[in-house]
Amino acid sequence: MQRKSILAAILSLIAPGLGQLYNKQWIKGLIFLAIDALGIWYFAGHLYRAVWGIVTLGEKKQQLVKVGKVYKNVPGDHSIQLLVEGLIILIIFFIFVWLYVLVVRDAYKTGLIREKGGKIARFSQSVNALFEKNFPITMLTIPAIGILFLTVLPILFGVLIAFTNYSGPSHVPPKSLVDWVGFKTFVDLLTLKTWSHTFWNVLLWTIEWAVLSTVTCYFGGLLVALLIQQKGIRFKKLWRTILLLPFAIPFLCSALIMNNLFNGEFGPINQYLGYFGIPKIGWLSDPSWAKLTVVLVNAWYGIPVTMLLMLGVLTTIPRDLYEAADVDGATAFQKFRSITLPRILFITSPVLITNFAGNINNFNAIYLLTGGGPMTGEYQFAGHTDLLVTWLFGLTYANNKFNFASAIGIIVFLMIATVSILSYRQTKSFKEEDLVQ
Amino acid sequence: MRASRIGLTLSYILLIILSVVSLYPAVWIIVSSFRPGGAIYSPTFLPERWTTVHFTELFTDKSFMFGRWYWNTLKIAVFSTIFGTLLVTLVAYSLSRFRFKGRQKVLSLLLVLNMFPNLMALTSVFLLLNQFNLLDTHLALIIIYSCGAPVLGMFVVKGYFDTLPRSLEESARIDGASHMTVFMKIMLPLSKPILVNSAIGLFVGSWIDFILARLVLRARENWTVAVGLWELATNFRTANFTMFAAGCVLVALPITLVFIFLQRYIVEGLTAGANKG
């Protein structure tokens, strides 16, 4: 009696839907058959070209061909478009294959039910199951399609570009073809002197920046929160609201405002310093000052958020701990060191690590303030305050070095992945302790 | 007692200094936007004469169409917020309340996607939009913002769903409610604070995005306010700083109001993130 299930599965393997028809699920079978026909018709025309496009990235160059008496520009293969189209078709193909597997499995399972003499699900019941048994899958379908095409596909493309020679001036379609070059971009980035010099310096500054900006925001926020929360301070709510204001202004605006405030020639900060006889400072044009300025501005924007968070955490610390400390005659500093700080660190350490990872990627803070500058001839298309991400952006949009930009993107990913894995393990280990709650 | 008095006085002085630092840039830009002339330099902090000419210019000038840009931005931001929040909710709810095959894989995938710098995806998003003839349309931005929302904002919302007790839906299920009913009638009302928080994030994000919007929107009349402000900041700043200041006020005002009035929900999101670990 094994036969029905196997036969149904084989039938659906030949053409999805046949098995369902055999199982007397007419509507379901016909729908699957229609999808199957549509898929085969589509992939017959496209799949080969997609694979060919991804593997070869095009073979025919754009060239001048003599037509009659004049030379005409005959367009060749556009490597990058071939790659994107190929990826789109491959993703659709994988969805199709997955559906195929599901349909075969469904035919097999229904066959099994028939063998055991059970009742076959009617079409309306199958539809119902979508909202009952398979509810989470149904809910995920639409977002999944969006994420697949607008996040997974672009990132996949971005990763693949790092392994090609897609860069100006000699390998930019449609004028010329792009080829696969393996790890050459990474090797160039790390060994060619001009590139590696820039890379290591930018990487170093990226790490310095991430540490500095995380630490300033974190402890700045903590100190401001402690200041407001102090016993005896009045109008706590007012102070909180005033100090929260920088966070309420969109960073796009405040960064551009700061850019003007710190303007070396006409900016008000230099103007006020001038009243005290201090000569003009190149806040954004001197390499060291520029680094300080971006950290300061980032702290200005970031401290309010941490303050808010810290104020929340401070209220969760039980009051009796402090009372007990008072009885023992502890000083304010001792109370802070032994009660407040450990609690705060314990609760907010995941935030600290997320912020660190976020700051590695903090494009806006640098791009809007200095644009990576002050530029320097020593670096390959980068300036003194460029982070890896802003360098990546500049390489893509100003200099057409797409492959290097992608390689840098992958390196940033590796950095953040490392930090995240460490943080994940740490929070795990934290969970096993029973300090809080 | 004396030591604490001194400490308190010092704290007040410090708080006043911090308040000045916090408020100064905003006050300066507002004052500048009402100052006659175009220069950034001004001998006095307050202008001798106040004028609204820079604001009217931004609405009536041929190259600046803030009225139109406001409308564009509002349209994009509202639709992205609605669809984005919907998608975030769907993903977060399924991944939080159900156990199914592949769940762990989906979670890891979302985690990994978040680790790539999203600028890396820009080139191919551009090519993709080109492929589907969506360049220079607002639809393109709405689609990208809403589809990107689950990747960026899912974990905070999921963390919130995780904290809701399981007994809620179990008792409803026993009473015969469908998954859809449980979701709509029980879970959604309970998760309002975090959904508002995620909606604010999406609204603000699409309001101030100038990178993608600048890449996608070509025709001037299709721009958003952020792109317009970027143009003001890069091409007009030196000659006409006061106009930039007025633009800045116009772009920031709605967002600042949203933040001040919905502060409660933003705090919710922050603490939800903190309790996650």
Automatic annotation (TrEMBL), chain A:
<dbReference type="GO" id="GO:1990060">
    <property type="term" value="C:maltose transport complex"/>
</dbReference>
<feature type="transmembrane region" description="Helical">
    <location>
        <begin position="29"/>
        <end position="51"/>
    </location>
</feature>
<feature type="domain" description="ABC transmembrane type-1">
    <location>
        <begin position="203"/>
        <end position="423"/>
    </location>
</feature>
<feature type="transmembrane region" description="Helical">
    <location>
        <begin position="140"/>
        <end position="165"/>
    </location>
</feature>
<feature type="transmembrane region" description="Helical">
    <location>
        <begin position="202"/>
        <end position="226"/>
    </location>
</feature>
<keyword id="KW-0472">Membrane</keyword>
<dbReference type="InterPro" id="IPR000515">
    <property type="entry name" value="MetI-like"/>
</dbReference>
<comment type="function">
    <text>Part of the ABC transporter complex MalEFGK involved in maltose/maltodextrin import. Probably responsible for the translocation of the substrate across the membrane.</text>
</comment>
<keyword id="KW-0812">Transmembrane</keyword>
<feature type="transmembrane region" description="Helical">
    <location>
        <begin position="238"/>
        <end position="258"/>
    </location>
</feature>
<keyword id="KW-1003">Cell membrane</keyword>
<keyword id="KW-0762">Sugar transport</keyword>
<dbReference type="Pfam" id="PF00528">
    <property type="entry name" value="BPD_transp_1"/>
</dbReference>
<keyword id="KW-0813">Transport</keyword>
<dbReference type="InterPro" id="IPR035906">
    <property type="entry name" value="MetI-like_sf"/>
</dbReference>
<dbReference type="GO" id="GO:0015423">
    <property type="term" value="F:ABC-type maltose transporter activity"/>
</dbReference>
<feature type="transmembrane region" description="Helical">
    <location>
        <begin position="292"/>
        <end position="314"/>
    </location>
</feature>
<protein>
    <recommendedName>
        <fullName>Maltose/maltodextrin transport system permease protein</fullName>
    </recommendedName>
</protein>
<comment type="similarity">
    <text>Belongs to the binding-protein-dependent transport system permease family. MalFG subfamily.</text>
</comment>
<dbReference type="GO" id="GO:0042956">
    <property type="term" value="P:maltodextrin transmembrane transport"/>
</dbReference>
<feature type="transmembrane region" description="Helical">
    <location>
        <begin position="344"/>
        <end position="369"/>
    </location>
</feature>
<feature type="transmembrane region" description="Helical">
    <location>
        <begin position="402"/>
        <end position="422"/>
    </location>
</feature>
<feature type="transmembrane region" description="Helical">
    <location>
        <begin position="82"/>
        <end position="103"/>
    </location>
</feature>
<keyword id="KW-1133">Transmembrane helix</keyword>
